[in-house]
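Q: Hi! First time asking for a complex rather than a single chain. Here are the components, and I think there are two in total. Is that enough to go on?
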Amino acid sequence: MPGLGRAALALALVLLVYAMVVGSYAAWKGRRRLLESAQSALIAAAAATAVAAAVLFLALAFTDFSLRYVWEQTSRDLPLIYRVSSLWGGQEGSLLLWMLVLTITAAAAIALNRKLVTNVLPWATPIFAGIAAFFAIVLVFVSTPFATQAIPPDGLGLNPSLQNVYMAAHPPLLYLGYVGLTVPFVFAMAALVSRHVDERWIVATRRWTLFAWTSLGFGILLGAKWAYEEVGWGGWYAWDPVENAALMPWLVATAFLHSVMIQEKKNMLRVWNVILISLTFSLALFGTFLTRSGVLNSIHSFAESSIGSWFLGAIAVVTIGSALLIISRLPELRARAKLESMLSREAAFLYNNLFLVALALTVLWGVVWPLVSEAVRGVAVTVGAPYYDFFAIVFGLPIVLLMGIAPLIAWRRSSWRSLRRQVVAPVGVAIVVGVLLALGGAASSVPALVGYTFSAFVLSAIILEFARGTRARHSKGGSWPGAFTGLVARNRRRYGGYVVHASIMLLLIGAAGVGAFSSSKLVQLSPGEAVAVKGYTLTFQGIEQGHTQNATEVRARFAVSRDGNEAGTISAGRNRYFAEDQTSNEIGLRTDWLRGEDLFVIADRFDPDGTVFVQVIVNPLVNLIWLAGIIFVLGSLITLWPDAREQRRIAERLEALAAFRGGTGPLVEGSVAPTTR
Amino acid sequence: MAERRLPVRLVIALSVAVVLAVFLLYTSFAGGATPSIRPSQLNDNIAQQVTLAGIVVGEVSGDSRAEGMHFFLKDFDGDTTVEVVYKGRVPDLFKVGRHVFLEGTMTGPGIVESDVVQGEFVGVEDSMVTKCPSKYAPVEDEAHPES
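A: Yes, that's all I need. Here is the structure of the assembled complex.
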């Protein structure tokens, strides 16, 4: 079996090199048949990679310890779900998953846009093949998942803190995100090489970008949920380099999603968009490099790695290559349309872009600062949470404000007077909410109060937009619910976008709640003793022991009462895992959905005399963060949902573009129906 | 057309200026960066708050919830060790042979004598983190003796 896996990978490498070399030649010379052959090779490479992945998958499911990878990642008594998720548990398996998702995505993106790729963007095929070939080379020559060994009695097992369903789902979602973002990157680069720098590459990849961005965002949030429940310090995001690794490409991709709308609608920001997508893809590679190479002193990654220099090389090639390509195509890229006013929707999108990119770059600076300082001064200086918090607030609050204002500003140019008329209601709501919260005691944290006031402004602006639109449709007849669903269905991108904005506001409210208003107490309790935190009283009832498939459990049980009323029991304790010879902290969690509040209990230490050290934390509003994740996906799905009308408009538009011969000319305003609004 | 060009460039130039200003503001007021060092570098950082990183070497004694837990930390790639006293939460993964970090201050002379830094490194309460609750890193031999 390992032989089959190795052979499949080697075959995939050969096919990818063929697709890259022959595809480049075909694209250069305009040989259609050869190009189709390269496309077929790419699709066949996806199939070969799937075979290799299936081999590893089966080996993990049947714990075949003759494979070193399986031995390193699993043990005999590890539950099946975690044996299977170990496919992306270790370095080699993760790289294989990257390559699998990449080749399948590339094959699908080419198959679904066959006409466009063959006629206009022939270079997409060799560029996809080149990126995939990089992973194939690393997997075949540097870091193979199919190394074999004499069969040992049992495997090393999986770190207990990673035996968690959120952690099983988090990495593949990040990979879907990283890999999905290669599609707009490759199409953009193909557009540059082919000198078809109009917005066709953007229109063709819009849904890929959105899908990748959604996966990445949701994956980050699942990682936060894992940290909250499993790492067990009561927090959910700690600005760890590995967390930042996924956040940076997400931030830049967010900027990209917004700025491509300006190009679609106004044919502006063409240079900026190709820069953004190159930066996004470089950061996605950098994210993989950070998590895999152990270059940084992070709690997640620390060992020296064989693939670090390979990834560094790939990042250099991508960054320098795309920069040179962009520079060489500057004359074609120069937009003919210009920004007409500093007070317009376009301008607002531009400001939002600048803040998002600034935030991403400051995070990047914080991540690489230990390396820079070690190189310069010999001592690694790490920046802590205060650094990131500061910039998240300084750059984040303007982004929040823009989320409320931008949808109210007209395209092209607006006037201060009309803006004033539009914002007066949301600003009124925000002031009322702010005053009420301040009177209610929220003034103890100024950043939280500001955050809440801003989100009240944005949320009321969004609700107002929905209300206005629904009323306008209703006035044309029909029922109110019909008018509402019709409104959303006819403008999926716009209203789906509003739903996503609303989810970000929920995230902000939840984050401010945990950050500013959580309370905690650490005590040593004997059986019968009680501790009170924020209206909750926990009485220590005693210690219970149990065991699972691969661990023994010890739990401290507490009777909970809230404001004097019985509220059940809660258990927290530790698990001892045999194969891994490790203990793991298992927190107790009681969620009050109505208040969005969590009671969070950590049994830190059990002493022989029957006492227990316990930390009790009450986290208000934290559940809004998880709710935000669900609404975020919902909003993205609305914008992604297939829309026959939109497809027709796009088809008409692409035809109109093709009629321009080469399509580099500007769109004539009004000649083509815009895809939004 | 020439004057129409201006806004975008102006906006970008202004925002670059704003970012730089914010950065300066931050570095002058907030600071907030701590050096991250190894036991052998403590000598140069006496009585200054640092993050100390090293490998736990035995033996571990004392109570982290009472007078303090005592153990030694060793350079990853050297033999210099220092005695550490620490109070507060001990991470799940803490044990001899593991790679840990903690914040704290070096007290005592800090001179290295026969590979031991003289004095005691006093950790900040609850500041200890172990490296790698991650399956991503290659297996460490001392953490996982061959079965």
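A: The beta strands of chain A are 380-383, 519-525, 530-533, 536-547, 551-562, 565-577, 582-586, 588-592, 597-606, 612-619. Let me know if you'd like any chain examined more closely.
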